[in-house]
Amino acid sequence: MRIDIISIFPEMLEQIFSYSIIQRAQSKNLIELKMHNLRDYSTNNYKSVDDYPYGGGAGMVLKVEPIAKCIDNLLEQRKYDEIIFPCPDAKVFTQNTVHELANKKNLIILCGHYKGIDERIREMYITKEISVGDYVLSGGELAAAIITDSIARVIPGVLGNESSALTDSFQDGILSPPVYTRPAVFREKKVPEILLSGDDKKINEWRNNQAYERTKKKRPDLL
Prior knowledge:
The chain is α/β, with parallel strands linked by helices. It is built from eight helices and nine strands.
């Protein structure tokens, strides 16, 4: 899989992607990440990519020309399955969308900034809009990192134990059960005896029950 990310702060993402799961996915050649600095496509000598909004008001808007030039350049090189724009007014990102995107071959993620991007880019190029939550970030870079990380971890071969991703929260539409590790007793709080029993059938039953009860208590909207 290849993901091209357009940003005015590509260095920020390069730092994030040089660690942990995403770094492992890249080293295994399971995912290819390319950063594109939007300022390289500026139409003036000052490398500016933003301007004041028509109609007045606070804030700046990312200009249409640099974004269009960058996306056009990428489209000339290969076919993309989706051109994604992280934004707060889209449907909230879910694990179902993660799996949908993980089955694609080529993706573009456009990181907005300031007050957003010229609406014509959304109309002309964007094929999927994603919100990572009902709040506003200073830019799309963190959202792009969230989307990329969540996709990478479900690509076969990325995790050391592929079954790990299958037991994550939301995989089966509910939250994951509580987990424990050594020591068995910490400040008089004990690990549930069932987990020390070695009885796989009973342990799985306990985990399923705990997952349901945790979902019922914390996220009943999922049931």
